[in-house]
Design brief:
The complex is a heterodimer of chains A (about 325) and B (about 350). With about 325 residues, chain A is α/β, with parallel strands linked by helices. Chain A has a single domain (about 20-320), classed as Thiamin diphosphate (ThDP)-binding fold, Pyr/PP domains (Rossmann fold, 3-Layer(aba) Sandwich). Helices cover about 40% and strands about 10% of the residues of chain A. In chain A, helix 8 links the parallel strand 7 (about 215-220) and strand 8. In chain A, helix 1 crosses helix 2, helix 2 runs parallel beside helix 8 and helix 4 (about 90-100) crosses helix 11 (about 295-320). The chains are: A alpha/beta (about 325), B alpha/beta (about 350).
């Protein structure tokens, strides 16, 4: 792909791919989508406190990247992080309970949508100050080097984050020291209302890698296998001591910036064009085209994903509300 | 035992912690091959190698974030700022990330991270002279430690490194007893009786949150940290000759604060002066005054006296700097005011 405006729509090329991997990717993308669709309704009914940012339409980035990792590899996420968590196997029950501010939530009801964390799954945290997770993932990569653990650390961030100074500082150090880090720009075209062209003097964001002497690639972020492939190569380089990679995944934020934000700053035809490039449907089409799954089998997976989210809501509703003084246990850690 | 200065004491505590625990690493500007701008990391690179002592680019926010990420994943990083004024470049990482991650994760994440460096007014102008700790006292989730003696510094840095929370460890340039960048003479201050002191060679830990009565007295309590502690001691010495008995308390850590030791002293003396080198407005001394009002109001026989820096950027001219920063005479006058009511 050469430009951010070129929208690819065709089926994902599934030829020769592991059917198990494809089914898992399909299921994970559906879970992430369904999780956020249900959140939307829960917010409409005011059953849910706080706010949230949906990644509807961006699921192939989260799932494609994480599918290339091992379970003990680490990631950092952002305010728009539900899909990253789903991809990293954070239990849906824990995530949903956190959304409802329950004690059983992944952060005991102390974090909420923007700070989902699960150390057991290598999910180091969602950092909701734009760009702030980039050096933290880089530090996890430095730690992996010092400990000799062989882990790789991935930082997810948006196109807006590349204009924070911390992006520059972290990528420079990662490359200087060949750290096993991978930087994923989820270019969803908008930083709230600002387009990439309106906020970046060089709209080819992957090209910034050149300033840090690291490989920079631009991939079709709505093609889960393209993302997976690029990440797999970056993982290999990282584990081999060859240092970090910057990957710009071109995708689109189908919904508004947050909860009910209407995104009136976007042309309707642009949104419709990207809807037609839905990453989940493109994978389904690819699997059907290669005879990897039948429509019935895909529907079965769709039903499973819906049921899993439904179960998570029922579980969360049965959990215990955070108490007024719960926070007192979490201000400082006891040694 | 042997006499060493505060820089050497902090260094010894760090070196011993690094020998004891391979998870302890150091990150910062010029900490490796140069040995630290104030020589606090002298020779560490030789002993521990580049995987434990990281010479970073000038990227305070970046290397603070790296420290946080490393702390989250099994290491105990010590991040050095060449001057603590520069930590302001890393405010988001310190205030929004390091301080909040433990709570945001519902206690699942820990950030065992030491942020340390020199501060204090020493004729370097407004951007290399500040006392920065009040900003971080205002940030729940971070502990704030401010040693005034080499003995305390060694015991406190070892505790700070072992702590599972972010700890800001504030050092005063005039207490270092080490040369400044460019190799000038060791810095000192006329109030300091001896820059070096006996410090045990073996490792020891002083718990965070324990104040120390540096000089017992009966008539008035003076609470001070860092360089101001030494100026308070000089005042106490002077006033003893004049028949006034001054008790001098060093909180040693400002967060957590040992309120009990302070309250016990005020219950005895009923008069108190708080001294801090940072600016007066919303500063360390202001917080101490409020805490004393909360806990000791009915023990007081006179208003609490606050001595702190003027509310101004620190000017370069030596006469102006002296006017801004509390001097021995300012502390003495405040003690006499506390006694006169």
């Amino acid at each position: 792909m050469n430009t951010a405006t070129e929208i690819l729509r065709g089926p994902v090329d599934c030829a020769g791919r592991d059917p198990e991997l494809l089914r898992r990717m399909f299921r994970k993308m559906l879970e992430a989508r369904e999780f956020e669709e249900q959140l939307y309704y829960l917010f409409l009914t005011t059953a849910m406190p706080g706010t949230m940012h949906q990644a509807v339409g961006q699921e192939a980035v989260a799932v494609g990247v994480v599918s290339a990792l091992k379970p003990d590899d680490t990631i950092t996420s952002t305010h728009r992080g539900h899909a990253h968590c789903v991809a990293k196997d954070v239990p849906l029950n824990d995530m949903m309970a956190e959304m409802f501010a329950k004690r059983e939530g992944s952060c005991r009801g102390m974090g909420g949508s923007m700070h989902l964390t699960d150390f057991d799954k290598g999910m180091l945290g969602a950092f909701a100050i734009v760009g702030s997770g980039i050096p933290i993932a880089t530090g996890a990569a430095l730690s992996a080097r010092v400990r000799g653990s062989g882990q790789v650390a991935v930082s997810f961030f948006g196109d807006g984050a590349v204009n924070e100074g911390i992006f520059h500082e972290a990528l420079n150090m990662a490359s200087l020291w060949n750290l096993p880090a991978i930087y994923i720009i989820e270019n969803n075209q908008y930083a709230l209302s600002m387009t990439v062209a309106e906020s970046s003097a060089l709209p080819d964001l992957a090209a910034r890698a050149g300033a840090y002497n690291m490989p920079g690639l631009r991939v079709d972020g709505n093609d889960v296998l393209a993302v997976y492939q690029a990440t797999s190569e970056a993982v290999e380089r990282a584990r081999d001591g060859q240092g970090p990679t910057l990957i710009e995944a071109l995708t689109y934020r189908i919904r508004g910036h947050a909860r009910f934000e209407a995104a009136g700053y976007r042309p309707a035809e642009e949104v419709e064009a990207w809807k037609a490039a839905d990453p989940i449907e493109r994978l389904a089409a690819g699997m059907l085209a290669q005879g990897i799954a039948t429509e019935d089998e895909l529907n079965q997976i769709r039903a499973q994903a819906e049921a899993a989210v439904e179960d998570a809501i029922a579980y969360a509703e049965s959990c215990t509300d955070v108490g007024a003084e719960d926070y007192l246990a979490y201000i400082t850690a006891e040694n | 035992m042997r006499e060493i200065g505060l820089a050497a004491a902090v260094r010894e505590g760090m070196v011993q912690a690094m020998r004891a625990d391979p998870a302890v690493i150091v990150l910062g500007e010029d900490v490796g091959k140069f040995g630290g701008a104030f020589h606090v990391t002298h020779d560490m690179l030789d002993e521990f190698g580049p995987d434990r002592v990281w010479d970073t680019p000038i990227s305070e926010a970046g290397f603070t974030g790296l420290g946080i990420g490393a702390a989250l994943t099994g290491l105990r990083p010590i991040v050095e700022y060449q001057y603590l004024d520069f930590i302001y470049c890393a405010m988001d990482q310190v205030v929004n990330q390091a301080a909040k991650i433990h709570l945001m994760s519902g206690g699942r994440a820990r950030v065992p991270l030491v942020l340390r460096g020199p501060q204090g007014a020493t004729g370097r102008g407004a951007q290399h002279s500040q006392s920065i700790e009040a900003y971080f006292m205002h940030t729940p989730g971070i502990k704030v430690v401010a040693p005034s003696t080499p003995y305390d510094a060694k015991g406190l840095i070892i505790s700070a490194i072992r702590d599972d929370n972010p700890v800001l460890f504030v050092e005063h340039k005039l207490l270092y007893g080490a040369a400044s960048p460019g190799g000038g003479k060791a810095l000192s201050d006329s109030a300091i009786q001896a820059i070096g002191m006996d410090v045990p060679e073996e490792p020891y830990a002083i718990p965070l949150g324990s104040a120390d009565v540096k000089r017992p007295g009966e008539d008035v309590t003076v609470i001070a940290t860092l360089l101001m502690l030494h100026r308070a001691l000089a005042v106490a010495e002077e006033l003893e000759a004049e028949g006034v008995s001054v008790e001098v308390i060093d909180p040693r850590s400002l967060v957590p604060l040992d309120v009990d030791t302070i309250a016990a002293s005020i219950a005895k003396t009923n008069r108190v002066v708080v001294v801090s080198e940072d600016v007066s407005r919303a500063g360390v001394a202001a917080e101490l005054v409020a805490t004393i009002n909360d806990h000791c109001f009915y023990d007081l026989e006179a208003p609490v006296q606050r001595v702190a820096a003027a509310n101004t950027p620190i000017p370069f001219g030596p006469a102006s700097e002296r006017h801004v920063i509390p001097q021995v005479d300012d502390i003495r006058a405040a003690v006499l005011r506390a006694l006169s009511d």
